Amino acid sequence: LLSRRQRQMCIRDRGESSALFARELIAEDVNLITCDAIPEPIHVQAKIRYRQPAQPAMAWQTPDGKLHIRFDVPQRAITCGQAAVLYDGENVVGGGTISWVSEPESV
Predict the structure, then answer these.
(1) Could you give the CA distance from residue 75 to residue 11 in angstroms, rounded to a whole number?
(2) What average pLDDT does this structure show over 62-73?
(3) Chain-wide mean pLDDT for the chain?
(4) DSSP designation for 53
(5) 93 in the Ramachandran plot: left (φ > 0), alpha (ψ -120 to 50) or beta?
């Protein structure tokens, strides 16, 4: 809804918020801290937003070095250009810049 008089734009949820949920992402410009590579899937906690609680996921690197993350539960509004950070408890495993997000998934 756009109001020219008030110069405001309002976005209303029409029950389509499920289109914002995805389970997988790929991140580039990967920086690993606690290991040299993640050739096989490992269980981690992952964050895609600073204030978000870490979420359980599987993570591994593809042959070209990109980081593939698959969350146990679909996440809301995964966004290209933002950081994805992996944790093992309180320790940062590494992270990268989100470059691809899977198709929306029903929650």
Answers:
(1) 20
(2) 97
(3) 88
(4) P
(5) alpha
Cβ neighbourhood burial of 67 (10 Å; 0-12, 13-18, 19+): buried
Cα(52)–Cα(54) distance, rounded to whole angstroms?
6
**Average pLDDT, integer, range 4-31:** 74
- Buried/exposed code over 70-107 (b: 16+ C-beta within 10 A; e: otherwise): ebeebbeebeeeeebbbbeeeeebbbbbbeebeeebee
Higher per-residue confidence, 5 vs 75? 75
Q: Which residues of 36-56 are buried (b: 16+ CB within 10 A; e: fewer)?
A: eebeeeeebbbbbeeeeeebe
Do 95 and 26 form a contact (C-beta atoms < 8 A)?
no
